[in-house]
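Progress narrative, Year 2. Work on Putative pre-16S rRNA nuclease from Ferviditalea candida advanced from sequence curation to structure prediction during this period.
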Amino acid sequence: MRLMGLDYGDKTIGVAVSDEMMWTAQGVEVIRRTDWERDVERLRQLMEQYEVSEIVVGLPKNMNGTIGPRGEICMEFAQSLQQILEIPVHLWDERLTTVSAERTLLEADVSRKKRKQVIDKLAAVFILQGYLDTKSNQ
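Result:
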């Protein structure tokens, strides 16, 4: 079984999955959000394809650790996913993951156009990898 990491945004959902040993996270795709049913159906298809047993959703906290409006939206999304997909859904502090993803892409000299296409997928990788790293150290 594998874990799936999600970077949930207004327009897109970045998706990453772990390897079977749950050591590393790899980017899978960026879902262009259309409507709730289609988004969930695509996530369900990816779950089946990669044999996902749990999901990790990035929780955007403020720098002081509080939860703002965007964080509340992500918490509602995670709760809805857990009810609909009937698998465990965990929230993971995603502070600075998009900044880290942007920096990584800039250092790799990826064009602005390409960065825009993959940044959410890379942010999902950072979210899932952070979760995996913490779990492997326990």
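The chain has a mean pLDDT of 87. Residues 54 and 88 are 5 Å apart (CA to CA).
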